[in-house]
Design brief:
The chain has 397 residues and is of the alpha/beta class. The protein folds into two domains: 147 residues, Rossmann fold, CATH 3.40.50.720; 218 residues, Dihydrodipicolinate Reductase, domain 2 (2-Layer Sandwich). Helices cover 36% and strands 23% of the residues. The strands form two sheets. The chain has a nine-stranded mixed beta sheet with strand order 14-13-12-11-7-10-9-8-15. A six-stranded parallel beta sheet has the order 3-2-1-4-5-6, with helices on both faces. α4 runs parallel beside α5 and α8 packs across α12. The N terminus is likely disordered. Keywords: NAD. InterPro entries: Gfo/Idh/MocA-like_OxRdtase_N, Gfo/Idh/MocA_Oxidoreductase, GFO_IDH_MocA-like_dom, NAD(P)-bd_dom_sf. GO terms for molecular function: nucleotide binding. This is Gfo/Idh/MocA family oxidoreductase.
Length: 397
Amino acid sequence: MNTVTTDQTIRLGIVGYGAQGTTYAGFIAEGRVPHMSIGAVCDTDPARRAQAEQDHPGVTTFEDYSDLLESGTVDAVVTCVPHYLHPDMGIRALRHGTPVLVEKPAGVYTQQVAELNRVAAETPDVPFAIMFNQRNNPLYRRIKEIIDAGDIGALRRTNWIITTWWRPQGYYDQSAWRATWGGEGGGVLVNQAPHQLDLIQWLCGVPRTVFAKAAFGYKRNIPVEDEVTALLDYGNGATGVFITATHDLVGTDRLEILGDKGKIVVDGSKKAHVFRLREDEQRISQDLGMDGVRGLFQGQLDPHEFYEEEDIEFDSVWGEQHTGVLENFALHLLDGTPLLAPGSDGINGVRLANAIHLSAWKNEEVPLDFDAAEHLSMLNDRILEEGEYPQRTGTVQ
């Protein structure tokens, strides 16, 4: 395994100098990640390498990823490349002994991400993280603390409408690979919503089954999904609804988590209102006498007497969540600080997205431990129909 530099700064290799790679490089150059420096940049496009050299004079650039790993110029890498390449590059870094921060999503289909996790398990001494920056959102971190502390009791229902992804047709037309099965692996579920697919499971647990209705090319000229409604079954009677789309110009971001002892309502991923019941809801129901029932129907019963309320809101500085994950990754390498988002967690969101696709394709409820080979076969049918990209195999390419 590579050793860190003596000045307590991790030299990060940025693989892919596109939108995300340039953003991370800018954060580091601005000093927003105290324990990290730009070690090198890798990109197959000579124009992007030239841009990196212009943006960050003195930084070494590489065309070949293997050359970067062998160069000795980096202590760790971040993979800012197309989704299908994340598992392959993650595996190569792990096998080389180089710590790796994989950009979201961890991959496109469950089989390739499972292989990435398998290699990670075989190389436990090589740090492996994923860029789930929303886990560094202080609002969601506080919400998780509330749920884990049992403040709202056992889960009953979740509802998340997240349609703040409006994308005009020109967004899709700018790149031939975007919003294709073969180039990107899907639509809103793999591009815009992976953070929410991760968060809902991080906060509330992994669903047992999913039944989904998805529209493919519904309001945009694309072959992949731009509208999704999914019903989640967590077991023990708890259910959830997840709605997302890229054609809602106004957009809504509202999450509700209902437990048997309270409720959390999140608006815009910026503020939350927490209701804590003074008793379990069923106990309140059982103890309410006929006078209370009459008062309820006559509008004389004040429900506020049964719960306490709390407002939660944090200031949000652009880029702070991403820089926090980068800094956490650096500190993990330097002193063992626990990771905000272990890389092995990345499979959860990919698996849920795959389950939603599979359910919509088959028009039936599917378990989260679905047949991954069946999903890949149906994905390949759609890649073949596009006729532009190679079909995928059950192993990382």
